[in-house]
Amino acid sequence: MTGVPRPGLRVLVRYGRAAGEPDPRDLAVLSPQERRQAGRFRQPHRGAAYAAAHATARRCLAERTGGTPEGLHFGRLACPGCGDPDHGRPVVEHPATTWESSLSRSGAHWLFVAADGAPVGVDIERIRPVDLGVLGRTVLSGAEAAYLAGLAPEPRQGAFMRCWTRKEAVVKATGIGIEADLRSVEVRPWQDTAVVAHQAVGCAVTHWTVRDLSVPPDCRAALAVPADREPHLDLASRGGTVLLLDPALRDRAPLDAPPHPALTRT
């Protein structure tokens, strides 16, 4: 793909961090099932993050489909790995649209991305202690394991979460999710931006560009888009702006663009 111009792809990126109870204005646009789910969390901030993320998805997609946030109907494609319709890629079933999206939550943090006419994936994770000896054997490729082994203990946990979020972003974009063998999805954490080969049944994309997103220092986050498209990111958050870690892309991103009015509440 070097030297060949790639068609542009506008990607919406929305980030937030919840606090306290779910916002009633978010709950008002959710489906009854989503409201029930938001109420099931034992920790209120987790329910607030769930409500904020799903409400943001509805507002952003409604604005671009001509519908209303509460009138959108979401479904899922069947998982290409096992055929289960409960954990395939989410889609808007009504109104008809070519927009595709992805959501991720970790504790109080959440991310939403959407693109018109192309699958996308996003993941955010809080940095937390994990047993790299056990989990690493089921997640990391040989090259990734060697890279982490060469790091000092302090940055190693963050580097592992960098690998994890990149892999999750890719497999969520393909729709295979938890069915994927993450060891085969090599994401090159030593690079700012990596092209990753990963294919799933029913997804025409075989190569993905994965890059980190700058979120609070206690988290790692990543975005995956088709490698044959040039992403132009529409970046905003509740109370701030999401920045890219890749300096070359950061210079081209609309960092001073104000957040969407529906996303300015905290």
Would you mind describing this structure in some detail?
The protein is an alpha+beta fold and 266 residues long. The protein has one domain: 4'-phosphopantetheinyl transferase domain (Ribosomal Protein L22, Chain A). 29% of the residues lie in helices and 27% in strands. It has seven helices and eleven strands. 44% of the residues are buried.
Q: How would you name the CATH homologous superfamily?
A: 4'-phosphopantetheinyl transferase domain
Total of helices? 7
- The stretches of 5 or more residues where confidence is low (pLDDT under 50) are 246-266
User: What is the CATH architecture annotation?
Assistant: Alpha-Beta Complex
Question: Per CATH, what is the topology?
Answer: Ribosomal Protein L22, Chain A
Largest sheet: 5 strands, antiparallel
Distance between the first and last residues' Cα: 41 Å
For the record, the count of structural domains works out to 1
So what's the CATH class? Alpha Beta
Strand coverage percent: 25-35%
**Per the principal axes of the C-alpha atoms, what is the gross shape?**
globular
SSE series: EHHHEEEEEHHHEEEEEH
Helix content: 25-40%
Mean pLDDT over all positions: 85
